[in-house]
Amino acid sequence: MKTLKKSFTVGLSSLTVFAVILSGCGGGKAQSDGAANPSASTANPSAAAGGTSNKMEGGTVRVAMSTEPDNLDPYLSAATDTNAMMDNVFDGLFEVGEAGTLTPAIAESYEVSEDGLKYTFHLRQEVKFHDGSDLTSADVHSSYAKLAGLDGKEPLSSKFSAVQSVETPDEYTVVVTLKTVDAAFLSANIAAIVPENYEQQSTKPIGAGPFKFTEYQSGQKLVLEKNEQFYDKDRAPVLDRVEFQFMPDQNSAVLALQSGNIDMVPGVSAQGAAQLGDTFNLVTGPQNMVQLMALNNTVAPLDNEKVRQAINYTIDKDVIIQTVAEGQGTKLGSNMSPAMAMFYQEGLENYYTPDLEKAKKLLSEAGYAQGFDLAITVPSNYQMHVDTAQVIAEQLKPIGIQVSIKQIEWSSWLENVYGNGEYEATIIGLTGKIDPNEVLGRYESTYKKNFYHYKNNAYDALLKQARTEMNEEKRSKLYKEAQKMLTEQAVAVYIMDPSRTTAMAGNLEGFKIYPVQKFDFAEMYYTQK
């Protein structure tokens, strides 16, 4: 038997977490040569050492969020910020730990058959949903049937595409049988388990997580309250309430933190951090994110590989990191952060060194010696992406590419760009995952949200082989080949993994950085001032 007492490393062992107080000059910067800064310092030794002698019970954390939820249903949401907020409401069979390992949640143990096709999960018996009903194998069956499309409807998650059947021998045992060996399947089991036959998740979500949904007012706030019946006493929250207030303008959010009207602001710039000074608690670290300029591979002239390569040879990522991220970013060359150390292909970050003459030559060979017009669409509420677009617009001028920047609302970006693929170029940040298939599978021709419109049979075959390869060394080699293929064909411009700083009230402690976008409020608490 394999049990969850054993940790499952998924290639994120190099994810270095910092807990630093930023100085006026924005210290704690990551290197821009493709390697995260391995050192860290702290100006709060007691918090760093886990000291909790002054821990207070209860309290409300008011969090400034730049975007609103796109959908409260965990199976229908595509926005990372939504998932970060609602992750507190839902639990899966496993949870993601700080080091990118799978830790026990609703499942207390599991077994895998010798052929790797059958997974047997044994559930905790004391888990209840927020409505007071017991969580049993029937709920897992119903949840997985939706995700895998076993209910006769369209599958809701590609991560469950290998699932052939789900059986429930008893109330607390679930047996999942796969069609083929799937090396990525274990990590898929962090998916939310929701009540069977409950159809109001989009308006009144119910889960089994440490906090329960209370209220959502569009344009104003999303409110969660402590789940008094949470099954895991070691993870039981101390806070009474979390209130997400929607504030698209970061400057306003920082001012609200300074005035005491907000307690936490995720994603503060170095300038904002310096403005706050040392009376606030600031935590910074790598995100396992890929900021990129996606290129629509089916729209002329971006359907020409030489044009895409010319763009890559023109853009200076180091300048973007120094100006937009104020030095706090790790240069990338593929759709993967070095945080995923086991699978990351080193060296690709320097594959395209700025070379205007080479770029002009490639454009000429492609038939665009005089350049062309290019529209870059960016979500207006993400200032970093807007600023990046402005820098890129200037950098592309010398080779004759005239850029127009189109700023649209986040909801429109999700629908038109991400959902429908209606754009020429766009700048966005893709958050990290704990399995490389989730990161690189975004480029498979069969992936419904492949908004790059990249289609390559050789790439598809490579990903298929990697997903069924259980030997980690061989699997790593295949994913490295896939990264190289994307880079050589210039499917996108891979820019950086920007460091993220979260600013909090000086007496708010317990914030942790994970290799996925996650706000773990069950771990947070106030201390006496």
Walk me through the structure.
- This protein is α+β, with helices and mostly antiparallel strands.
- It folds into 3 domains: 16-30 and 39-88 and 209-286 and 500-527, Periplasmic binding protein-like II (D-Maltodextrin-Binding Protein, domain 2); 94-188, Dipeptide-binding Protein, domain 1; 290-498, Roll (Dipeptide-binding Protein, domain 3), CATH 3.10.105.10.
- The chain has helices at 45-48, 80-86, 137-148, 185-188, 250-259, 270-276, 305-314, 317-323, 356-365, 383-396, 410-419, 436-440, 457-467, 472-488; strands spanning 2-3, 55-56, 60-65, 94-96, 102-104, 107-112, 118-123, 163-170, 173-178, 211-217, 221-226, 241-246, 264-265, 281-285, 290-295, 329-331, 372-379, 401-408, 425-430, 492-498, 500-504, 508-509, 525-527.
- A hairpin with a 2-residue loop joins strand 8 (163-170) and strand 9.
- It starts with a strand and ends with a strand.
- Residues 3-51 have low confidence and may be disordered.
- Belongs to the bacterial solute-binding protein 5 family.
- Keywords: Signal, Transport.
- GO terms for molecular function: peptide transmembrane transporter activity.
